[in-house]
Write a structure and sequence with these properties.
By secondary structure, the chain is of the alpha/beta class. The chain is built from nine helices and twelve strands.
């Protein structure tokens, strides 16, 4: 009876990976089957953690069991985030191939988690190239941050036109929708953070007030990709569907960040903000059409 399969990391404490994606999707009305690629005590940003990384064979075995039990009945999309290594990535794409053999129109939303501005890459050598050459062409929706977009498109991004050109370059490799989850360019306002969505039908940008954290919470990208996928499943990938999904996502992220700041911790305040997230409307966010 699942409608979305999410293959990501899992932590016992806190909200990253599947812990940041599954609950918001459920509150938005989606049934989710979670396949965990790791089980850690907490996210690695704390410096100390326990647990283990699951092998690619383990992931395939879990997917085998799901398929044997359900036949993937009703599954409309696959969502993935941090993969860890190429073997895990290959297991993910194997799951996608098996899903599409049953449901050829099932969507694949790939969050190409590889690195970030100021940090550079934080994944194993070879994984960025694998992501570019294998995951990207298989995806319908891809949700890079600005650093990941620049690397995948092999170009510097300093203007909004640079961002749109880079996003179009990614679309030529396969995805129909590119969501840039954080964008700071030459015409950005210093006190705001932007997201941009690019499709064959247009490009749209939305900006919300920049909320400062020290240290910043982890898991925001996982949350963003999940909420955006939910919007695209409801509103479609054509016309202004992705733009409307972007507006809803931006509103939900703002609600979550404001609740997290008010809570004063370093974990996303998903539980206190859940009702507001579920009711988030794109009408509260101004969206700018760029082309």
């Amino acid at each position: 009876m699942s409608e979305i399969i999410s293959i990501q990391s899992h932590v016992a404490y806190g909200y990253v990976g599947n812990r940041a994606a599954v609950f918001p999707l459920q509150r938005l009305g989606w049934d989710v089957t979670a396949v965990n690629t790791v089980q850690f005590s907490n996210h690695t940003g704390y410096g100390r953690f326990t647990g283990e990384v699951f092998s690619a064979a383990h992931i395939r075995e879990v997917v085998d069991g799901i398929q044997a039990l359900t036949g993937f009945a009703g599954v409309r999309a696959l969502l993935t985030g941090y993969m860890g290594d190429q073997a895990t990535g290959a297991a993910v794409l194997d799951a996608l191939a098996r899903l599409r053999a049953v449901h050829p129109r099932a969507l694949y939303c790939c969050d190409p988690v590889m690195g970030d501005t100021g940090r550079g890459f934080f994944v194993r050598d070879g994984l960025p190239q694998w992501m570019r050459d294998h995951a990207l062409p298989a995806a319908d929706i891809v949700t890079p941050n600005q650093f990941e977009l620049a690397w995948l498109a092999d170009r510097d991004i300093t203007t909004r036109n640079d961002a749109m050109t880079a996003a179009a370059a990614l679309r030529r490799r396969g995805p129909r929708v590119v969501l840039v989850t954080s964008l700071v360019v030459d015409d950005s306002q210093a006190d705001r953070i932007a997201m941009l969505v690019d499709t064959a039908d247009g490009s749209w940008r939305v900006s919300t007030p920049l909320i400062h954290f020290d240290p910043p919470p982890n898991g925001a990208g996982d949350f963003t990709a999940a909420v955006f996928l939910a919007g695209c499943l409801e509103l479609g990938l054509g016309g202004d569907g992705p733009a409307r999904a972007l507006a809803r996502t931006a509103a939900a992220v703002r609600i979550l960040f404001e609740a997290t700041q008010a809570a004063g911790g370093r974990e996303l305040a998903l539980i206190p903000a859940q009702n507001e997230i579920a009711a988030a409307s794109g009408d509260t966010v101004a969206i700018e059409r760029l082309r």
